Amino acid sequence: MAVATASRTDPLGHTTLAGTQRTTDTGPTKIPIVAHIITDDDLEILQGSKLQPLNLKRVIKLLTDPHSMMLYDRHVNALQRICRHYQKGIPMKELVQVFKILNVCADRMDSQILYEQPVVDILKLCALPYLKEKSSDELTYEQIVIESVSQLGYLMRIPSDIIRKQICRTLQAFYNESSIVQDVQHKPSSLSYNRRMVEMSDISETLVKSLALLENNLDIKLQVLSVLQDLSRNSGKNCEQMLRAEAAKRLCLRLMDPDPSGQLLFRSIDIIWNLLEYGDKHIVASQLNNITCISQLRDAFIFQMTQGYSHYDRQLRNDLLVISSLVAESCPDAPFVETGFVKQLTLFATFQEVKSHNPLVKQLKLQTNHEDFELRKLLMNVLVLLSRDPNCHSCELILSEGHLLLALFSFVRANEKQSRPREWSVAQFEEMQLHAMSVLSSLCPLMLEDYMTCQGSTRLLLLLEWCVGPDTFGGHGNSFHGTSGRGNKKAQMRHCLRLMRSVVSTEDEVILQDLSDQGAINQLLGVLSTAFTKSADQYDAVEIEMQSDILFILSCLCDRDMHKKELFGTLGVDTLVRHLKTDVKLLNSGLGHHKLLLAAIDCVWCSVVGCYITEDYLLEKEGVYLLIDLLEMSPKNMHNLIVGCLLDLCENPKTVNHVLTWRGQNGSTAAHLFCEMWRNEEAEIGASRDENGAITDVTKPLMGQLQEERGTVSLPSQFPSQAIVDVSENMRAKIYSFFCKIGFTDLPGLTVDDHVTLTIIEKYLDFKIGEVWTEIMKELEMENVRPVTPDAEAMEAISRAIEERAQIVAATQAELLEAQRNQDILDEQEFYAEIRENHRQAEKRESDFAAFTLRVSSISHLKAAKKRQELSIDASRIQPKYRDIDHFHDTTLHTLRTTVFSGKHVKVETPPRVTEGERPELAPYDPGELPPLNRQFVKHLTI
User: Fold this and answer.
1) Where is average pLDDT lowest: 85-94, 534-543, 884-893?
2) Residue 303 in contact with residue 260, Cβ under 8 Å?
């Protein structure tokens, strides 16, 4: 009989019983044993031939054993047997033995050439992806694979061209090929795995170092360069390894070696380009920063420039120029001047516009194709980068001798609508024109004499006049410089103003006078008033930038020159007022309104302030009100400029009245605004103040937290101390100067906190002098210098006087705060008294209403009230016995039963609680008190 408590299914699908032993009548039955590991081979799902293991240790022993190391024929047969056995790939677990065999053969290659072909055959097998028995083999044998790939590079030491070529082919196939069919049960490694192993090995560095062995073997050298091209493409790790071996320097030093095929230059430049793109370009530039490398780049560029004729040669020529540009950008001190490269570049950049008899350009002609067009722009760009050389004077002389500015200014002219045959197209000329003006913006400040020689100011003003003129021109706006210039002249106008801005920023008097003499001020004001007539929120970023540039140019032209400020005149003031009315909400739009507003304020400061004619007109246009409005609503980083402008504007006596008259959004005054700014400044620097803004430490009434932490440091006399630096780091000195203009007393709209702050502002200069003297005494003490007795007594008296003044200010502040507290208490009492009076009036209204209802509801109370009224009237008479005279006429209506004076209407003040629904409490009704009423009495009562 069979008994079972549970059943289970094995991996093959057979069901067995578990829990009790199965018994039958014949005896116990054996339970079958199920295998725990079932391989793919057992399931017969693997395809391909099965790779049988090979005992490589015997081969190694055959090669290294002293008794068999001379049996060369057996060695060759064993190596050939290995090649036949692993013709579909080498397993990862056998790589250690295989490369040990390769190294043994490599060491014997000098004595026996028989090993050459077997080594080549084994290297061919290494080009195949390595085989793995399990999925985990990639992780298990990762370090072995990395070292095996590195060993391939070490085998370049074998002095055999065949082996070296095969190593290069093996590496290229292992790194690039992924579609190799290996009819074997083992799974090959993936291409991504192979590339990762190559990146983790040092094969790239080894191949770069092996170039030193191949200087006289061009064929193998080109093979190695081809491998380095593949390894450096899209791999930052390989590029880093190559840079560790100074690959850029090694390649650049041999650029111009003899090479009939022309591959050496191309492959070397391609590798350097990859190093710049995927490696650290600063390291590449530093490796190329030597006279030999720059000379090689120069020779290669000149050769391609003068001898190249094909599309490929032009591209290679441009690549050489780009590499030179990157070197010049990263290393400004690179020896381009010393090698003569700058002179040659200047010649090639100007030979079309400036005629030259140099034989290099005698037969040279640039076409209108894309490569030559890019060459012109690259030449302009590299000359700008070279002008940043610390030895810039030598470079400037070379550029000046080459008439570079004259060549560039040939593009600063009005654009034509159609191009001539064999000339740049309209779009190409426009792009080159904008690029040339961008280059001039960098070069003109360095070459002012050449700028004046080329009549640059005249050219710029003529171009600006064309930009705003009626001539129609639709810009293409294709390039980076042509942003927002499609279909208009906006790009030309933008770069023209940029160039003019860079020139006037040098503050050269000759250039400023030349622009002014040619009417630049009136022309720029006309551009502002005619070309920009929309509202401020309708401008785009380019238009706002152009307006900012114009205002900056006007500021530079009119600064410190009274005659030019008069030329600025009322038209300029009207323009500035329009810009000062810019909505402050636009400052965060990201279009540059903050720059425009700062430029407008700076233009007010430079072009208006100082000339009474323009100042008075600005006051008429409420310019001071606009500036203080901006001060109230603008961000803090703009306050310093606005306060400085207002401070200089206050030199005009008429300005003070405008400042005192100004009222802010909540009715605040300018004095209150500046006191609030003072408190914000002190809160930012961490000055010691209590919650009311009063002084807490009389020994340092102005010192901020940062100044206190830095302490006093002994400095040379030419360096300012912390107390002096503090004057320029915040606006407290300007606020003090502003109050010196408007006064410290009789200022409207000040609160108690403002008066407390004003006591500190008034003594700012005394406190600052005290800080300076305190620093002097501490520095003398630190330097162990004892002043003479009179000086010591004087310094002690100064210190004591400053501290006493601080105590006086603190006491004044305490009195102000105490007076404010007393006033608050008095106001509180008055408020409570008002509340009590309101309650009394309310109670009186209620009592009056209750009396009224009592009179109209009770005749006895009405009679009593009537009697009291008559007595009150008699008491108010001048002659109390007027009733006793002979001619007395009684005017009283005896039938009238009212206690109010007669009229058409009776006014009754009803308490609020009655109107809200509550009824007043009436006197209890007593019918015995009231006499019977007849109709006649009721009739008289209603009348």
Assistant:
1) 884-893
2) no
